[in-house]
Design brief:
With 195 residues, the chain is an alpha+beta fold. The chain is built from 5 helices and 10 strands, in the order E-H-E-E-H-E-H-E-E-E-E-E-H-E-H. It folds into 2 domains: 39 residues, no CATH class; 152 residues, Roll (ph1033 like fold). The protein has a 6-stranded mixed sheet. A two-stranded parallel sheet has the order 1-2. A two-stranded antiparallel sheet has the order 7-8. Strand 5 and strand 6 form a beta hairpin.
């Protein structure tokens, strides 16, 4: 079992206690597994508002959308291999008049095959993919809050975000990891009035 990491100082003690309880009860974890903790991860996910805006997602059942149409292997691998339920998400509008962070969310599912790869009429159709051997995975994203727009100029003005993948020259990935420090900085900026 994976136990989420929190800011509480006694998390390590709690995880160790779970392992002792399992052992003391005479139970064996499957395949010798033990309880361990993981660090919550954070992601910036770009969407073109003409295709799927933050308002569109909020209007969907449970404010949740399958993050379909990703056709970049690195972005796919982030969803398939690294994203976990509950990871934090910055919802980012791209390819629009004012690109920027427009909402907060969370990963709401494990990875599963993107059905658009099998649909011949879809612009995301992949003739090399089959239901038996899917090539493209997605996760569901739940929007938890619509925010003010935190645009690129404001992001670039922050020294604390100087190393953010989004701000690197030539970056065009639709999904990028962000650090916990970058996440906290952006949350702080979103709570402030724009400069």
């Amino acid at each position: 079992m994976i136990v989420p990491l929190s800011d509480e100082p006694d998390v390590e003690e709690a995880v160790a206690d779970l392992n002792h309880q399992v052992r003391d009860a005479g139970l064996t974890a499957p395949a010798g597994q033990t309880y361990r903790r993981y660090s919550m991860q954070y992601w910036l996910m770009k969407s073109e508002p003409e295709e799927c805006s933050v308002d569109d997602v909020i209007a969907m059942p449970e404010a949740t959308v399958p993050w379909f149409g990703v056709r970049n292997y690195q972005a796919r691998n982030f969803m398939r291999d690294q994203m976990r339920l509950g990871d934090g998400v910055l919802f980012y509008h791209s390819s629009c008049a004012r690109p920027g962070v427009v909402g907060l969310g969370e990963v709401a599912s494990s990875a599963y095959p993107d059905a658009t790869q099998f649909e011949p009429g879809s612009k995301y159709f992949d003739p090399k993919a089959s239901p038996e051997s899917p090539r493209w995975q997605l996760v569901d994203i739940r929007v938890t809050e619509k925010t003010r727009t935190l645009d690129l100029a404001e992001l670039r003005a922050q020294d604390a975000l100087a190393d953010m993948v989004l701000l690197r020259r030539g970056n065009r990935l639709s999904i990028t990891p962000i650090t916990a420090h970058e996440w906290r900085t952006i949350l702080r900026l979103l709570r402030e009035s724009p400069t």
